[in-house]
Every structure is written in structure tokens, then in C-alpha cells.
Specification:
This protein is α/β, with parallel strands linked by helices. The chain has four domains: 107 residues, no CATH class; 46 residues; 126 residues, Ribonuclease H-like superfamily/Ribonuclease H (Nucleotidyltransferase, domain 5, 2-Layer Sandwich), CATH 3.30.420; 133 residues, no CATH class. The strands form three sheets. Strands 1, 2, 5, 6 and 7 form a five-stranded mixed beta sheet that branches. It has a five-stranded mixed beta sheet with strand order 10-9-8-11-12, sandwiched between helices. A two-stranded antiparallel sheet has the order 3-4. The longest helix is centred in the middle third of the chain and has 25 residues. It is elongated and about 95 Å long. The mean pLDDT is 87. The chain binds zinc ion. The site of zinc ion has 8 residues, from loops. Zinc ion (ZN) binds next to loops.
Length: 431
Amino acid sequence: MASDDFRGLIAWAGGWDGFEIVQWTPEEELAPDPFGLPAQRLIIELTPARDTGRRCSKCGTPVTVVHDVSMRRVRDLPLMGRDVWLFVPHARLDCPPCGRVPEQIGWLDRYQRVTKRLAEALAHLAQVFGVSAVATLFHVDWDTVKLAHRRALAAHLGPQEASDFSAVRQIAVDEFALHKGHTYATVVVDVETKRVLWVARGRGADALGSFFTTLGAAGCARIEAIVSDLAGPFLKAMRTYCPRAKLVYDLFHALQRYTVQVVDPVRIAEANRIARPNRHAGRTEIEHRRRHLTGRGVRWLLLRARENLRSPAERVRLDELLAANHALFITYVLKEDLRTLWQCRSVAAARHAWHEWYARACDSGIALLVRFAHRLALSAEYIINHAVYPLHTSLLEGINNTIKVMKRMAYGYRDDDYFFLRIRAAFPGLA
Ligand SMILES: [Zn+2]
């Protein structure tokens, strides 16, 4: 094919409105492709088309007075497997009504290093494959892909303040750590649609207050139930803004708290007790029994519901563990029974089950368990409320886990706004 024909083909495929090709040069790239093979690029130099005038980027009117022209290097979609680099002269104009303004280029946004359509492609692919994979594939900076994705998400989702909250009746509230636990963020979810309604920096009253303020008095009055961990500051904001909403204690958080405050310390105490010098057991046996309690996977065994254990071997291991340790056995049984409080479907049954559980915990003779039961008694009303509002208890656990995975994948995010947009995009809600 003659050079002119090829130029015509590139110009047609490129469709750089208002510009024409001065020349094009194939070139080998410095960085190899993902297979380590030499990657090819195409350098395309553009110049303003003779028949089209320049236009002001503010008001759109044609302007003839050019103040100066600078050369921009921008990336475009690959052409026939080659990365495309464009050299684009970009003028600053003196527009009579607007003053000094950059000229309008329909396919290229201001300050961007990639064309609109490349940004769009990067954003779409990043949504599916993640930022790193797309950056590698297109030989583009990680930040360029991230920026394209962030802008696309922001445009797609819109500001959360402007969302329609009119159908929201039941919400779930949770918090998660940002930046190695120094700062926190709060997330609000619509229980019925699983849509993330709100993500904001901070925890407790401040973060939640901003949501309730946006919701407005009428919106707050429509909230019937709130499920959460019901930690102190949350509780205060919920009572202030939604005094009539039923508060529901989330099972996932209750079990987490039970594990940290009761199961873990009881297990460690048992292990230490065994490790003490003992006439009846030799060193190896003590070490063996101690490792039995502190080894990998023990915490997991104790945390899972028995029916969720993956294999018969795990069930046998759990049984052995519990048979050998009385205190651990009690805490385990009461943990499983605690779970059943969230299965009651009437207030009377829930209240009865709670009183039973409380009495057994108090009679257990295990100080940590007794203390836990006393503290939990302050929230008993919120456990019983679950019988009326059986908000799905795996909702917050699922969101919590997704956020954790996203955070691990995105160790490079130092961009909270981007992270929050990704969380909102991951839970768009059911139609
Ligand atoms: Zn103008």
C-alpha cells in the first residue's frame, strides 16, 4: 500500500476532528510488551486542518487571533496493535468575550495526557480487570488509568449528596479502617437493595451526621430500622436523627466481639495453663497440647458455625479440641447459641431466648464470659429487635469482606475519593 493510502486510512480511523496528519513514524518502544517482546508504537504528528477554524473552548465561537501554540504529546487508542502517540499543536486564543482561552478540541480534554476515547477504554477495562492489568497492557502509567477510571466512576455515579434516597427505609451502617488503621471511614447501605448509599471519612457521629443531614428531616423520619455494630458514637447519631427507628444489633459484629473478648482470651489462658510445669505430662506432650490450642486454624475452627466446617476431619479436630478443654467447650457452645438469638421470628421467642442465654452465660463460671454477658445485656433490646426486622445478617459481613479485598488489591490507592467511588460502584443495588 502506498504511503498516502496508509495516511488516508490512519486519518480515517483516527478521526481527529479539526486536524490532519503531517507525518507518521513507526518506532520501537523502550518498554517491552507483557511477553517481553519489543513493542511497537506509531508516532503521529497532527496539524490544524486547513478548512476548519479554531474555536474558543469556553463559548464555542470561532476565533482567529492565536496567542501562542504549544505541542502536546497525548496517547490514543492502539492502532493495528501499535501504541499511538499523537503530537498535537494546541493553541491559546484571544477570544473577545472570554479573554485568553485554550482552543476547543472535541476529542481531547484539557490537561489530559490521553484522548477521550482512550480514557473511556481504560476506565471500562479497569472496572473489569483492575488498574494494574490495564496499565501493563496499554503501556500507560498506573496513575493515568486510575484517573481515567475515577473520572468515569464519578461521572457515572454522580455525587452521593445528589442521590435519590426517597425509597430508603432500612439501612445498615458500618465502619472500616483506612491507611493502616489510623483513620476510619463509614459506609451506609440500603438493606433492601444492597446499594451503598454513602461512604465518608471519619467514624461515628460526624460521618453519620453528614448522611442524615443530606437525607433531611423527612428522609430520616422514613427510616424504620438501622442495623449496625451499635458502637457508642453511632448510637448517639442514630438516636438524635432517627429517634423512632428500631435499632438492630448486627450478628456478624456481635460474633466478632465475642471472639475477640471471650474465645481468644479463653483459648490463650487454657494454652498458658497447660504450659505450666506439670507432674503428669512430659515436655513434648505439654508442647503438643499447647500447640493444639494456638496452632494455625484453631481460631478459624472456633469461629465458624459447625455446619460450615469444610470436612469431617475438621469436625473431628474441633471435637477433640473441645473435649480436652472445658472452658473452651463452654465458650464455644455459648457462641453457637448466641447465633440462634438472631433466628427468632417473634419478640416473645427472642426475649425468652435472650434471658436463657444470659442466665447460662452468667452461670458459666468463666469471668470473661460473665463480663461479656453483662455488657451485651445493655444491647439486648437491639438483639430482640431483629425478630421484627430480620435484616440480613450477612449483608455487612459481605460488604466488609469486599472492602478488605479491594483495599488489599489497591495498596497503591492513596486516593480515598477513588476508593470510595469503587466501593459505591461495587454495590450499585438491585434494580
Ligand atoms: Zn469565548
